[in-house]
Please model this.
Amino acid sequence: MKLSDEIQIGLRRLFNSRLINEDQFKAVVDSVVSSHILLDQESEDLNNKFTSKVDITKEVFSSLVTVLTESARNDLDSTALGTFLRTLNFDDGRIEYICTAYAKCKHLFDAKLKSYGHHLPQIKSANWKLLFCVKNNAESELGDQLYNIQLASENESQKINFVCTLQELEQLVTGFKDMSRHAQNFR
Model:
């Protein structure tokens, strides 16, 4: 895992016991784990929680969030994260505390990363319904059947609804068949 210089500086400050004492360190780690970033809660103002060294606290907070997010994105477990942090020559006691906190909240990081979506949603099911059929005696007028299509993705909260004609539905089905055929060729 590669970290920018700014993040490494923030981590060095986090592990510097002269800048961040043990109580502040634990409070920062606990704030990251219970932050609004992971739990979709009202954001907690770091200025109110940490009255001294607010700028440094914000910097180490964002650096720790970045490291834990990158660890989850790279699917590191707590031991791999600990190994990575040890390569940066940090204090073992603080590394263990971070690794323990990361192990408890890794599933939250994974869920957040999945919800942001680095990929398009995968279609799990498709439903259709004939809305109505308009019959008209005049041939020049539209007498098309309209279909209501609902595509459900793997995330149940995401459903795509649209209305199309029979011709558009046939084009959609043909497109799905072509994509399926191309996907089978890649295997």
Summary: Residues 86 and 92 are 7 Å apart (CA to CA). The chain has a mean pLDDT of 80. The chain is about 55% helix and 15% strand.
